[in-house]
Amino acid sequence: MCRLLGYLGQPISLDRLLNQPEHSLIVQSYQPREMTSGVVNADGFGIGWYHSTAETDPFIYKNILPIWSDINLPELSGYIQSGCILANIRSATAGQPVDLSNCQPFKHGRLLFTHNGFIENFRQTLYRPIRDRLNDTAYQLIQGSTDSEHIFALFIHHLQTRSNAHSPQQPANIAQITAALKDTIHSLNHLANSNPTKISANLIISNGRELVATRYSLGATPPTLYWLSHHNSFPHSAIIASEPLFIGDWHLCAPQSFLTITENMETHVLPI
To answer: What are the residue boundaries of the Glutamine amidotransferase type-2 domain, all occurrences included (predicted)?
Structure first.
């Protein structure tokens, strides 16, 4: 079970989120408090961010090392600044290889995606059914073997289907992302009814200006997901995290819900 993080707001250094908080993502990698399976998140990590001023595709830094042992990260995270950041520390499912292709976040054009959860017995249940649903663009996106990347490909498939060959150079807006995410959840439910399995899918997706997240499960307890906005230390900003990073007015997302955060820091929680 992974831990994930999303940030939207005023540009800050990556270090402000990854290392400085008392229960930072680095601390969560070796001392998580609310994981429902696994003990540590030591099977690699990834950080995705958008340029703080230029309109470019997002950047990603990944490593198969535990996040606490990457000697390059302190230098990078103290230098890089961004107003939109996604990060993931990985606890690999037994039998899944620990390599860069399986580290999150994943990206397509201007979109970043990260997932915390699982599809139970993925290779025996939904691996082939998901692939059989994908258009060619979404299918070709898959480089690794995780259920997470297949969920991302399914999302891209539905996004393109809704927007009639959506161009990755024209980022989808929050309404398009939310609609495609609903389609993705409905597809997972339908496939799981035909191929009985348990699913949990806490997701964060960004276009660089907005965040959309889910706390969702089928036949399982969903992992925890919290959000906080306009904290004194992070004014005009919002954070989504698997576990609170520090003491503050964190809100626990209800199970089976969407969380959207707009450019203006408007936060909405809606049922799936």
So the answer is: 2-272
Please name the residue ranges forming H helices in 70-146: 73-79, 127-133, 136-141
Looking at residue 76, its pLDDT comes to 95
Least Cα distance to 176 among 242, 253, 109 occurs for 109
Predicted local distance difference test score (pLDDT) of residue 168: 52
Give the model's pLDDT for residue 167.
Answer: 54
- Please tell me whether the overall predicted TM-score, pTM, comes out greater than 0.85 for this model: yes
What does the alpha-carbon distance between residue 209 and residue 194 come to, in Å, rounded to a whole number?
37
The angle that helices 174-194 and 147-163 make with each other, rounded to 10 degrees, is: 120
Structure tokens at 5: 């993080």
Number of H helices, E strands in the chain: 7, 14
Tokens 């203006």, located at residue: 264
Q: Is 103 a catalytic residue?
A: no
Amino acid of residue 82: S
Residue 91: its pLDDT value, please? 82
Q: Which of 91, 76, 70 is nearest to 4 (CA)?
A: 91
With left for phi above 0 and alpha for psi between -120 and 50, is residue 9 left, alpha or beta?
Answer: left
Angle at 254 between CA 252 and CA 258, to 5 degrees: 105
How would you list the strands of the sheet with 45-49, edge to edge? 59-63, 45-49, 81-89, 3-13, 234-241, 226-231, 251-252
Residue numbers in the chain where pLDDT is lower than 50: 165-166
